[in-house]
Amino acid sequence: MTARLVDLLLLRAGYNSAVVVAGAAALGLAAGVVGSFVLLRRRVLVSDAIGHAALPGVALAFLAGVALTGSGRHFGLLLLGAVASGTLGVLLVQAIRDHTRLPEDSAIATVLSLFFSVGVVLLSHIQTLPAGGQAGLNALLLGSAATMSLDEARLVGGAALAVVAACALLTKEFGLLCFDAGYAAALGWPVRRLDLMLSLLLLAVVAIGLKTVGLILIVALVALPPVAARCWTDRLGRMAALSGGFGALAAWLGAAASSLWPRLPTGGLIVLVAGGLLMLSLLCGPARGLSARRRSRPP
């Protein structure tokens, strides 16, 4: 078993396993980088709202695929449905936050519960259809990377690289937005547009994480790597790089373990690895870990 795991980690266990592990690592990289800005902006729960908001879009896309082609299991179509529904959820959260007196957490809870309820009803309806028994949509909740094809891995990898590139280009703007949005607005920067851009990048990560981590656990892959990276450094650039590395490592190890134990959900294994990296960082991190607290105590 150890030799098999080593082969999986080194992408030598076969073509399909290499595709799955590489696609998962690309997702983890993008989730970690975006998660750094989302964490500092204190919008981690938005990723949870987006994940739940994407569920009815996935279900509607499946129904559309069944009506048009007789099969709804087209990853591109499901991805499009997730993006459309998630975008609507993001816009609703912003509208409730900006045009009512409700706090942001109430807006997130409202959108999350409403969209997820609609998604559950649609999933229940799909199970009653002739094509619904083999839909496999439940795997999208917890991840099923073992069935990832080369085209799907390419789509995930391309989208992940685009997200990372956008974050690299907007590091200065996102940094000021996270640390002092009021000052950014005073400088004339489009704070709302930057907020929307960050939310859309987060939405892209949630959408491409459908196959690997699933809609429910994607929030963990967005949150855990940047928290771990925060324990090691106080510099934004280093934090984003470390977070991306932690996310890629967690997804890489988790996807490899999923190939070794195919009955276990991929998303759960990836999150467990990310949690292990977080615990290690909390213990050993020189910036905000327990070791840093001990050094800062007076003798």
UniProtKB/TrEMBL annotation:
Assigned keywords, A-Z: Cell membrane, Membrane, Transmembrane, Transmembrane helix, Transport
TM segment ranges: 20-40, 49-69, 75-95, 107-126, 162-186, 198-224, 236-261, 267-287
Gene3D superfamilies found in the cross-reference section: ABC transporter involved in vitamin B12 uptake, BtuC (1.10.3470.10)
Gene Ontology, cellular component aspect: ATP-binding cassette (ABC) transporter complex
Annotated membrane topology: Multi-pass membrane protein
Domain of life, source organism: Bacteria
Record flagged with keyword Transmembrane: yes
Annotated localization: Cell membrane
GO biological process assignments: response to zinc ion; transmembrane transport
Database matches in InterPro entries: ABC_BtuC-like, ABC_TroCD
Family under the similarity heading: Belongs to the ABC-3 integral membrane protein family.
Protein name: Manganese/zinc/iron transport system permease protein
Species of provenance: Azoarcus indigens
